[in-house]
Amino acid sequence: MAKIRTGFVSNSSSSSFIIAISETNKCPHCGRSDVDILDLVRRSSYCDNEVTAEGKEEVIKHLSEWYESDKYIKKIKDFDDKDKQIAMIEISYHDDVLNNLITESNNIEILFKE
């Protein structure tokens, strides 16, 4: 019998997030912009950190293929992603830097966390 997940946590040593990242503008004076959180996740030295799906359609596709619960899919479908990028990521419990960036950033909205 196939295992059907009811939540989206796939690893007990990491937290799963579905996030919406606001597009940021570069500073008109210095050209500096906020950090690219998905790039940080991809380049992280923690093996549990991963960008699982990127973009609204990819997140919905991943959820529908792997998880039984429609509550995630409905919220993502209904979410207004204008000027925002939706992604599904996993972050190691031990990566305090990325966990703090995600939970404390004004440019990141956490849609789901498990």
Description:
This protein has 114 residues and is an alpha+beta fold. The chain has one domain (15-22, 34-113). The chain is built from four helices and four strands; from the N terminus they run βαβααβαβ. The protein has helices spanning 37-43, 56-66, 70-78, 96-104, and strands at residues 14-22, 50-54, 84-92, 108-113. Strands 2-3-1-4 form a four-stranded antiparallel sheet, with helices on both faces. α2 packs antiparallel against α3. The chain is globular, with a radius of gyration of 15 Å. The two termini are 25 Å apart. The relative contact order is 0.32. Mean pLDDT is 83; it is low at 1-6.
Task: Briefly summarize what is shown.
32% of the residues lie in helices and 25% in strands. The chain is of the alpha+beta class and 114 residues long.
Oligomer: single chain
Net shape? globular
Run of helices and strands: EHEHHEHE
Helical content stands at 25-40%
Number of DSSP helical runs? 4
Q: Estimate the strand proportion.
A: 25-35%
* Structural category: alpha+beta
Our Rg estimate from Cα atoms comes to: 15 Å
Strands across the major sheet, in which order?
Answer: 2-3-1-4
